[in-house]
Amino acid sequence: MNPTASVNDRIQLIVNGATAEAGVAACSPDLAKGPWEFDAQPPGYGPGSSMGDVIPTGSPVQGGLPTEYKTATNDELHERIRVAKETLGERVVILGHFYQREEVVRHADYLGDSYQLAVQAKNRPEAEAIIFCGVHFMAETADILSSANQAVILPNLAAGCSMADMADIDSVTQCWEELTALYGTEPDADGRVPIIPVTYMNSSAALKGFCGENGGIVCTSSNAETVLKWAFERGQRVLFFPDQHLGRNTAKAMGVPLEAMPLWHGRKPLGGNTAVELAEARVILWNGFCSVHKRFNVGQIEQARRDHPGVRVIVHPECPMPVVDAADEYGSTEYIRKAVAEATEPTTFAIGTEINMVQRLAAQYPQHTIFCLDPVVCPCSTMYRIHPGYLAWVLERLVAGEVVNQIVVPEDVALPARVALERMLAAKPV
Ligand code: SF4
């Protein structure tokens, strides 16, 4: 991979004052440190986009990483990873998310969004170990969909997702009880039940299990519209969690009026809504968001249009609605990747998604001008925790016959979660 694709290299240059990029900054100087500096206790998610979010108590903590992996250079780690992977051969498969660091992605067998990687996990039954270079909920999903004899490994256990952490099973269960008390459980004349739960892939296995048990389904940003259609065929309304923006942007595009999309605030009776508002609701939105995509705003789009007349602005549907409305197009990470890959004429793209993906696209397609709408370099804090040192460590432990950092979803959770995931896989992406 072209070295200019490395966000980490760019951050080091910015933080050390060694770059001539005018007006460009990193959102935290701590990004230049190794993630192990933030692993011992979880006071926050670490440097990056979700620094200001509150990490729930009980979140997984990585703990120690042997010093040799912290002090090795990137070149040394690259070589150790390469050798360990070669030794393991077909016994291991490495999955890398689009938002992952370049130094890790270069070793991935598959690069993709959470939907594509979930499918890959399911399609590689011969691999004894699946190393998921993404975040915690993705590794849980891989464990649910993979075979019982496969070990799913998350190189750094502290790589969670601040959005997924905004909806926990207790709060969603409480919300569900209030809603079913309000709506009852009787289907209407068309056989549609009062409410269907839909969880975004970016949620805990427990919430996927909740959906499986309550007639619901999982969605990703690639298939949210297909999944909402699936839900409206079976239910009068939807409870959508945890990402309010994906829910609102998708339902709005399907013609659901904003007044029929109340926001549910946990801890307030009826989520802070009246019974009348909820009676008229089509989509009840959980009050969650992604701190990476929340950084984008309409002013950035206006600036891009001033600076680059004719620019093509594409944003992710986790962005707030005004940003999606102001953009030329919106879509999942795979949609964005394809839009760039398929552009036949040299084009200027301003992209509203995570910086690692944007910078990789810029390096891969030099015939285009590609930049991130956000001028501040601020990667996803949690994805950033998968440093190549952790990848080298888990691989070398595997070579030594030891499985570390295995993610195991208990079978009583995995069973209903698999039901909700299989419904999604059968519903097919748009
Ligand atoms: S980009 Fe946002 S939704 Fe994706 S893993 Fe990071 S915090 Fe979670």
Can you give me a brief rundown of this structure?
The protein has 430 residues and is α/β, with parallel strands linked by helices. The chain has helices at residues 7-15, 67-71, 74-88, 102-105, 114-123, 136-145, 169-183, 205-213, 224-234, 244-253, 275-279, 298-307, 321-326, 333-341, 355-364, 388-399, 411-427, and strands spanning 25-26, 92-97, 110-112, 129-133, 151-153, 196-200, 217-219, 238-241, 263-264, 283-286, 312-315, 329-330, 348-352, 369-372, 376-377. The chain has 17 helices and 15 strands.
Q: Can you walk through the features of this model?
A:
This protein has 17 helices and 15 strands. Helix 3 runs parallel beside helix 16. The strands form four sheets. Strands 7-6-8-10-9 form a five-stranded parallel β-sheet, with helices on both faces. Strands 3-2-4-5 form a four-stranded parallel β-sheet, with helices on one face. A four-stranded parallel β-sheet has the order 12-11-13-14. 39% of the residues lie in helices and 13% in strands. Helix 11 links the parallel strand 9 (263-264) and strand 10 (283-286). The chain has 430 residues and is of the alpha/beta class. Bound molecules: iron/sulfur cluster. This is Quinolinate synthase. It holds the Pfam family NadA.
